[in-house]
Amino acid sequence: MSTEGRSFKKTAAAALICAVVVFLCLNRLLPDKKAEEARGDYFFLGTVVHISVYGQGKDFLSEELAGLEAEGKRLEKLFSANIPESDVRRASDGQGKWVEVSEETYALVKRAVDLSEDTDGAFDPALGRITKLWKIGSDGARVPEEEEIRAALRCCGCKDIELKEDDGAYFIKVTGGALIDLGGIAKGRVADIMVKKLADDGIKSALIDLGGNLAVTGERPGGGKWRLGIQTPERPRGEYFGTVSVSDCSVVTSGAYERYLEKDGVRWHHIFDPSTGRPTDSDFSSVTVIDRDSTKADALSTALFVMGRDGADGYLKEHKDIAAVFLLKGEKRVLVTEAARSVFTAADASLSVGDIGGAGK
Ligand code: FAD
Ligand code: MG
Questions:
Q1: 70, 77 in Cβ contact below 8 A?
Q2: Same domain, yes or no, for 292 and 200?
């Protein structure tokens, strides 16, 4: 064969390979009605995790799941207060010393401190002395003596956390005996990081469920918004009092019905009022926040639960953009903010729906 003939064949082969690569890439990026599903069920962050990803190619999807699982476990090793080598534990154990941490931990602790200020301390990431004292949800859970609670409370609050960035390195200093606990915010951050990874990897449709902390990317497979249920407290898992219809969004619920200690007929749950050091006597059974930013939604669902009805109403009047749904304790009544009106549907016809945060006015 002539030199021109061989060169033509090489060019044609290269063009064919390029066409196949472009086809495969487009196939992943364009909306796809016949998407396959890969689902992973795991246990990390102290909770049951389910992830479903949709697209083309079982191997590609399984690889994506494996990557998400690895990422979740890597982040847990940075953020967990239960792992002695984690950034969070090293910072708390370093009492009075600057401890170098990863940029990710620094950024999350900084965000947690900012959200604490924003919620006037209702969200307190320096509440670790209190959570460690009660141990709700773990072995050794107990109701402490009032004196123990008072002593632990003296070691809480973000005044005891300092942060500094120095020449590309990140440091945290914890003082006054405080312990950092990111249990009320870190699942949201992990969801946000997973959502970013999915987008970077070209996955158009996915559902992440980190123990009730939900995040969806894009639309559901086949098109249209995702319909996500909000659990009815005290009822079997999967029984919903309402749904929210969203795309590219996160839906985070805080409630008193999953993690608690029952003693002498009294239920002590895991969301603490930083002003008393005791489980919050909230007006709500659950609080759901709907936001693209899962870190914010996680911290705010906890904070609004702590604030109670009057506190939440006042806060939401100053933050009209927040979409939130509140189930009132002991009543068949939900309150929704103006921003949540268009996405929330009551699933139970006997449920009455009212306003909070100036909605409807
Ligand atoms: P949320 O309302 O989002 O958070 C409640 C949690 O936040 C409490 O458990 C407490 O940790 C903290 N908190 C309570 N009150 C406040 C407040 N006023 N302000 C700020 N924070 C508050 N659980 C285990 O049993 N074993 C584990 O090994 C374990 N490891 C974990 C590792 C990580 C990185 C994270 C994020 C959580 C871990 N958990 C573990 C906790 C478990 O997953 C919790 O159920 C979860 O964090 C609580 O979330 P929630 O959605 O139920 O409630
Ligand atoms: Mg939370």
A1: no
A2: yes
pLDDT tens-digit readout, 65-81: 999 999 999 999 999 99
Count of C-beta atoms within a 10 Å radius of residue 214? 26
**Host domain of residue 28:** 8-77+185-355
Q: Look up the CATH number of the domain holding residue 196.
A: 3.10.520.10
27 band by pLDDT with thresholds 50, 70 and 90: very low
> 97 lies in a domain?
yes
Closest ligand 1 atom to residue 299 Cα is: 3
- Note whether 246 and 278 are same-domain residues: yes
Centre of ligand 1 to C-alpha 30, Å, is 38
Of the bound ligands, which one is closest to the alpha carbon of residue 296?
A: 2
pLDDT surpassing 80 at residue 278: yes
Q: What length is written for the chain? A: 361
Neighbour count for residue 347 (Cβ, 10 Å): 14
Determine which residue's CA is closest to atom 43 belonging to ligand 1.
Answer: 46
CA 144 – ligand 1 centroid, Å:
19
| 208 found inside a domain | yes
Confirm if 250 and 297 have CB atoms less than 8 A apart.
yes
Q: Which amino acid does the sequence have at 31?
A: P
Confirm whether 3 is domain-assigned: no
For a pocket test of ligand 1, which of 300, 302, 305, 307 has the largest count of ligand atoms closer than 8 A to its C-beta?
302
Domain boundary among 141, 174, 207: 174
* Number of domains comprising the chain: 2
**Structure tokens, 22:** 């472009």
Query: Residue 132: which CATH number?
Result: 1.10.3980.10
Pocket mutation for ligand 1, best pick of 45, 214, 254, 257 (most atoms within 8 Å of C-beta):
45
What is the reported pTM? Answer: 0.89
Contact 312, 301 (CB under 8 A): no
Residues 57 and 94 in one domain: no
Ligand in nearest proximity to the CA of 286: 1
pLDDT in tens, 14-26: 444 434 443 333 3
Q: Which helix (H) or strand (E) holds 37?
A: strand 36-44
Q: Is 209 in the pocket of ligand 1 (CB under 6 A)?
A: no
Q: Which residue from 82, 139, 269, 304 has its CB within 8 A of the most atoms of ligand 1, so it is best to mutate?
A: 82
Is the CB of 131 within 6 Å of ligand 1?
yes
